[in-house]
Amino acid sequence: MKKTFPILLLLMVLFTDCNSPQIGNEPKDSPAIIPQIGNWQQELKEQLALLGHRNWVLVVDAAYPLQSKPAIKTINTGEDQIYVVKEVIEAIEKAPHVYPVVFLDKEIDFVPEKEAKGIGVYKKELDHLLKGKELSKVLHEELIATIDEAAKTFNILVLKTNMTIPYTSVFFRLDCGYWGAKQENKMREAMNK
């Protein structure tokens, strides 16, 4: 009995460890994923209060890749993309500490309607939502690389939608809402005198 007791004890410990949930023991380099659909607006509101200059909020199509950096938090909204873009714009505009600089995939202007039904309507709706916003179009792979690089230092919030048209993601880089480039340049000039 003395020899079998340590073996039984060891087996019990191993069996318990294999079947117990390991909450809080996720690998440190794994991305933050919130797979459940539902309360993404509340999550956006909470995250936006924490985010600031140089953080990003992305509204992406269904095939957008799950990136592996721990600073990139992905939420599956299960929603229509135009609706999510509208909600994000409204949330950012209500936040006094940030304003959005918008980036779109350059490829969006070259995706034909005959191969991606609905792209024309989507672009019209998106143009309406983004009217008057600071906007640039950049190659998709460059945007992915930019997000990957930014995630080395800054947090990124990715809101995944049910959109199934390619090159439709909208990237919002947050900038300071109360201190712009003009103020920064004037201050830097004064510092150099």
Name the features.
193 residues, seven-stranded mixed beta sheet, RbsD-like fold, single chain, globular, alpha/beta, 20% strand, 6 helices
Written description of the protein model:
- The protein is an alpha/beta fold and 193 residues long.
- The chain has one domain (32-191): RbsD-like fold (3-Layer(aba) Sandwich), CATH 3.40.1650.10.
- It contains six helices and seven strands.
- It has helices at 4-19, 40-50, 81-94, 119-130, 140-150, 181-191, and strands spanning 32-34, 56-60, 72-76, 98-105, 134-138, 156-160, 170-176.
- The chain has a seven-stranded mixed sheet.
- β4, α4 and β5 form a beta-alpha-beta unit.
- α2 (40-50) runs parallel beside α3 and α3 (81-94) packs parallel to α4 (119-130).
- The longest helix is centred in the first third of the chain and has 16 residues, at 4-19.
- It is globular.
- The termini are far apart.
- Mean pLDDT is 86; it is low at 8-28.
Q: Quick gist of this model?
A:
The protein is α/β, with parallel strands linked by helices and 193 residues long. The protein has helices spanning 4-19, 40-50, 81-94, 119-130, 140-150, 181-191; strands spanning 32-34, 56-60, 72-76, 98-105, 134-138, 156-160, 170-176. The chain has a 7-stranded mixed beta sheet with strand order 1-3-6-2-7-4-5.
